[in-house]
UniProtKB/TrEMBL annotation:
Membrane-spanning intervals of the chain: 453-473
Keyword Ion transport: no
Alphabetized InterPro entries for the sequence: Haem_d1_sf, Host-pathogen_enzymatic-act, WD40/YVTN_repeat-like_dom_sf, YVTN_b-propeller_repeat
Organism in which the protein naturally occurs: Acidianus manzaensis
Name under which the protein is recorded: YncE family protein
Stretches of the chain forming a coiled coil according to its record: none
Keywords, in A-Z order: Membrane, Transmembrane, Transmembrane helix
Domain of life: Archaea
């Protein structure tokens, strides 16, 4: 009886090993992916004159670009402008809230509210509106008015309050249930709860920008005049960190929990990790930053050197040139592209990631030519591999082989969102009794060609395990 139970235990163990190595593990392997995407300029989109800011509308997947020189907003879908919406005089900052687009018209002291591609309301606000922040709890929109030292509070399409804050409010953010307003002229932060100022926090000289570390619930303020970053917890300053000269834009990386500070006067970026600060050089006159949540990269626009620097963690991984006077830079989650506003021109440069789509054939005699056509572009080879470097998207392909041979698959469509390999089986056509019989096989998309060797090793291991189990059982019976 005891030996029978032992035998059953070994059988169960053998079945579990078989299940893991031949079913669970291959499924797990199929989900592994290593991207070798490359950042490149994919095109330029012509917009109005003097593009100055941009925002993304997740409800319709459009990108809205303010063009201050044309007093309009260019609406972009993918790589095309689908509408130009006329707004107030010198539209500057722009933001998405409540399913609507809010445009601050700096010269006409007003806010244009856009639904889709139409202006549905225009509100008069304070003098020189230059910052927009949304409170998702109260669903209020806060407009900072630079020259009137105030904040206008909007509920959807109507003004509900006008709040006095510090001197020259220049930036704002929502965090911890409050709205924090950066006052450039009074070296302070006004803390707003609903429609009331509940605190004023002293910071460094000429504070310029603010960001929120959602991991530690801390706020970081760049102090342009004192070359420092003020760290705030709630309504109290808890630290002051020295950075390079002229800290301007500031950004939080939620993957590494780093704070990136754009040091305008020193052509560098300071990276804050807790209380430690490291510095890396970028291009001349860095003007803006954005974060790519897919790759975890930070993109820095360099106005003076007509380039974009790409930073991964604490090191530069790429420098993209030939971008004329880049300023504001924004990530588009719809197509995962980076859009760069060229302030001194009338276009937006788009940066994308190219992926590898590789076709690998087996069965064709050595030296025979074959080809693959993708969207009208054909590549030939007499080796066993053809590769295309493509942007993410949907592509149709056709495999062309010599007369007397057939490829499986010989055509198809693929949604390319990561580098992939398509395996092709090419067989010789056999003629039997005037009937053409074509051997069939299956398409497989995989990351590696090492699976046959892997399975062979596993089979050998399982056979050896079976032999050992048999010997153990025989010895126990003795």
């Amino acid at each position: 009886m005891r030996y029978g139970n032992i035998h059953k235990d070994y059988v169960r163990m053998f079945l579990l090993l078989f299940l893991f190595f031949f079913i669970i593990f291959p499924i797990f392997q199929s989900y592994q992916h290593e991207s070798n995407a490359k950042f490149e300029i994919t095109g330029n989109i012509s917009v109005g004159d003097f593009p100055i800011d941009a925002t993304y509308d997740p409800s319709n997947e459009y990108l809205y670009v303010t063009t201050a020189g044309s007093n309009s907003v260019s609406v972009i879908s993918g790589m095309s402008v689908i509408a130009n919406v006329t707004v107030g005089d010198y539209p500057g900052v722009i933001g998405y809230a409540n399913g609507l687009i809010y445009v601050a018209n700096y010269i006409s002291d007003s806010v244009s509210i856009i639904n889709g591609t139409s202006v549905i309301a225009t509100l008069n606000v304070g003098i020189n509106p230059d910052s927009i922040t949304y409170d998702p709890i109260d669903r209020y929109v806060y407009i900072s008015n630079y020259e009137s030292n105030s904040v206008t509070v909007i509920s959807r399409t109507r003004e509900i309050a006008n709040i006095s804050v510090g001197s020259l409010p220049i930036d704002s953010i929502y965090a911890n249930g409050y709205v924090y307003v950066v006052n450039d002229g009074s070296n302070s932060i006004s803390v707003i709860n609903g429609t009331s100022v509940i605190a004023s926090i002293k910071v460094g000289e000429y504070p310029d920008s603010i960001t929120f570390d959602s991991h530690n619930n801390l706020l970081y303020v760049s102090d342009f005049g004192s070359n420092s970053v003020t760290v705030i917890n709630g309504t109290k300053v808890i630290d002051n960190l020295s950075v390079e000269e002229g800290p301007d834009d500031i950004l939080y990386d939620p993957v590494n929990n780093y704070i990136y500070v754009l040091d305008f006067l020193s052509n560098s970026v300071s990276i804050i990790n807790g209380t430690s600060v490291i510095n890396i050089k970028v291009g001349e006159e860095p003007a803006g930053m954005t974060y790519d949540p897919i790759n975890g990269d930070v993109f820095v626009s360099n106005y003076g050197s007509n380039s974009v620097t790409v930073i991964s963690g604490t090191r530069e991984i790429s420098n993209i040139s030939s971008i004329e006077f880049p300023v504001i830079i924004i990530y588009n989650p719809m197509n995962e592209f980076i859009y760069v506003l060229n302030k001194a021109s009338h276009y937006v440069t788009v940066i994308g990631q190219k992926l590898n789509l590789t076709f690998v054939e087996s069965g064709l005699p050595q030296g025979y030519n074959w080809s693959v056509t993708i969207n009208g572009s054909t590549r030939f080879t007499n080796s066993d591999e053809i590769s295309f470097n493509l942007l993410p998207g949907i592509y149709k392909y056709k495999v062309n082989v010599p007369s007397g041979y057939s490829a499986e698959p010989n055509n198809g469509s693929i949604n390319l969102n990561q580098s992939q390999i398509i395996k092709l089986s090419i067989v010789k056509i056999r003629v039997m009794s005037s009937t053409i019989i074509v051997s069939s096989s299956k398409i497989s998309i995989t990351r590696t060609s090492m699976f046959p060797v892997f399975y062979l090793i596993i089979i050998i291991i399982i056979i050896l395990a079976g032999i050992i189990i048999g010997l153990v059982l025989r010895n126990r019976k003795k």
